[in-house]
Hints:
Shape: globular
Protein name: Transporter
GO molecular function, one term: symporter activity
GO cellular component, one term: membrane
Oligomer: single chain
Structural class: mainly alpha
Pfam families: SNF
Largest sheet: none
Radius of gyration: 21 Å
Membrane topology: Multi-pass membrane protein
Bound molecules: phenylalanine
Amino acid sequence: xxxxxxxxxxxxxxxxxxxxxxxxxxxxxxxxxxxxxxxxxxxxxxxxxxxxxxxxxxxxxxxxxxxxxxxxxxxxxxxxxxxxxxxxxxxxxxxxxxxxxxxxxxxxxxxxxxxxxxxxxxxxxxxxxxxxxxxxxxxxxxxxxxxxxxxxxxxxxxxxxxxxxxxxxxxxxxxxxxxxxxxxxxxxxxxxxxxxxxxxxxxxxxxxxxxxxxxxxxxxxxxxxxxxxxxxxxxxxxxxxxxxxxxxxxxxxxxxxxxxxxxxxxxxxxxxxxxxxxxxxxxxxxxxxxxxxxxxxxxxxxxxxxxxxxxxxxxxxxxxxxxxxxxxxxxxxxxxxxxxxxxxxxxxxxxxxxxxxxxxxxxxxxxxxxxxxxxxxxxxxxxxxxxxxxxxxxxxxxxxxxxxxxxxxxxxxxxxxxxxxxxxxxxxxxxxxxxxxxxxxxxxxxxxxxxxxxxxx
Length: 457
Ligand code: PHE
């Protein structure tokens, strides 16, 4: 994608917004968000998720943009450039590790999406029923060979784009296709809302039942907020390093966080009414999207064409999100280790392919490696997800907030985020600073201690 040495910047504020949204919007909105809402009991999880986005997500995104634009460097090099003491580079290393862990399972799920595009084109979903939707998903998932082949195809596509360095191309694709994806989700929403029994789905999504809120549920909501907004691992830091000097970065953080949440909620509105109407269970797990969407489209005129379009656009959203994720290690290898861009990409994606097979072969209990459990708890697929989203990203976010809140001069922070005073946003800056210094770190610490049982909420 970006040629780091030239230090390009995005051309306009509009491009900044769409590029950043292109990283945030992906399988997180369409696949992970609905399935986690389903397994964590509905509305209460949604409420905690939205609180995490506002109280922790927006402040930390602003911090990442600050570090990125101020240093105009990659996630590891940035701290050196800002004269931070050596230890802060750990944030960058953790980011590189998170990028790998996420990519191991993300490429696997993206592979399922790619294969659904292919299946939809072949007309495999004609006359789909609950039973056939289930069998189609299971055969996609359990394979064993086909999901590995699709994962390989995904990683090849991502490598080609990353090597070709077609940042502008990607920008243009996201800018035009993201609104189309948005419209398709809206069409699904309208259909889902008019299905018999739709209100039960809405009730599940929006009714807040506080008894559902346990430590692990709150941690999962927090982890999802980080995963969704691509935070805590240097992706937004790297993007910040390409921002224009005139960008209002706090406004960008807020706009990206809110648009991203809106897309997630709209995906939820498309899925949950269908879950209840077609007799699935909300706690279905990772298959939720793959089973409900073909069923919803089977009830829409020209549904088979729209189904192809839906999975195609989801595949694009997943691909652009992956590109921003993999850019973190690639930028590190090229800028800090002096490896050429092409080799850096091939090295990174090859590791992702080899280890990613472990995720692919453990996605379901009946998969080839489905009964291997790390530390007796989770399989590879779930472990990669849990360790990255629920542990590394929030810790990365905590360290970023502590760095900016306690090791950067407040004046410096305010100067950069007010574009040298030209934005007149003093009040907003003072508020966000309080969040960065006190509220976000405290919340992060409380959620952690609560989830490991050291304190009880
Ligand atoms: N935010 C992306 C999504 O929702 C995933 C992602 C995580 C991308 C971390 C980059 C870095 O799908």
